[in-house]
Task: structure prediction
Amino acid sequence: MASNGGISSLSGFAYQIKVFVYYLEKLQDNMEIGYETFEDVAIKYKPDDLEYIDKKCVDFNSLLKTSKGITAIQVKKKKLDAKDFKQLLYNWILLEMSDDPITNYILLMDSSYNNSDLIFDKSALTIYDEIVQSNEDVKSLKSQIKNIIDNDFSKFENAYNNIRANYEFKEIVDMDEMLNQVYGKTFHKPSVNSKVYECRIKALLSKITCEIMESVVKNKSYTCKYDDLIHFLEEICQDISDKEIYTDFSIFKSLNHISLKDTEIAMSRQYKQLCACFYSENKIEEHLVYEQYYNDYKLGNLENMKKYKIDTIEDTTYSHFTDAKEYLNNINNDKPFFRLDETKKRGNSYTLNEQIYYGSAIHLTKEDIEKKLLISWKDVKDEY
Result:
């Protein structure tokens, strides 16, 4: 069952994360890269409002900090008009006139949108006149710049010329391929299975997305230092290898959400079986996320030629279910909730964590599971 939510649905935001992770690979000792807001924009992520972050991600800016200074990186994955370019220039002018030593300005574009570079299509004097003659709200970018330059054209022109002299416009043809190329050495591409390498990149994207989301929902910037990155990379290489492909459940859960309003979910056997066990929608959603997590784990192992591992897990889970049902029959307490609860209590030594085990049990309630492995919390004759 596919997730109805998740960061993967957020085109612009997800693209920014990929660019951020691309520049992460360039970090060296005592360097850091930040993801922060130009303005005070509080993000309230709601799984049912997938476009919210995409609409707001225009307000985010990445800053790559080295001993030589700071590179400001703006990422755009949309068709831009003159107003968009002007907004970006205003933001950069504020940065240039701040205390931060900005040494480079980079605008990265997805080439599929065929954007022309219009950021300097007007002279410094023309833009200056537009700013000083404006009467916008005091919180607007124009008003902020107007207040800083205080009718001093030379101050404004100096900032404008510095940005222009240190500006670079880059078009990206294939961001995924760029990530694939740049992390080859870091994730030992020549010495591991191609699926393992792919999963390591995916895991880093998920980890960074989770870290950034935790910050932006609190209206805070996120900074990844070189030491942080090394720690992330070591964990990922340990968790994902030719022997095992494993994703941290807390990260997976934060980036994948279930909506019971989804017709596909509401019609599924897994959902109907869980409804026989729980009154709480939250508990039903929780267990459906376990199933998603297991499906992700299963797919990774199947692609890594580890079908035997999945077969062993599912055989063991089904065996525990039949043991649980037999036990409940013997104590005259064979009810749907107790079938599920007793199955979960028995654990599965072939899984890395209990969430994979729980997910395998929910997975085996799917309608298309072969009969010899099909689990029913509520027997078929009693199903709706």
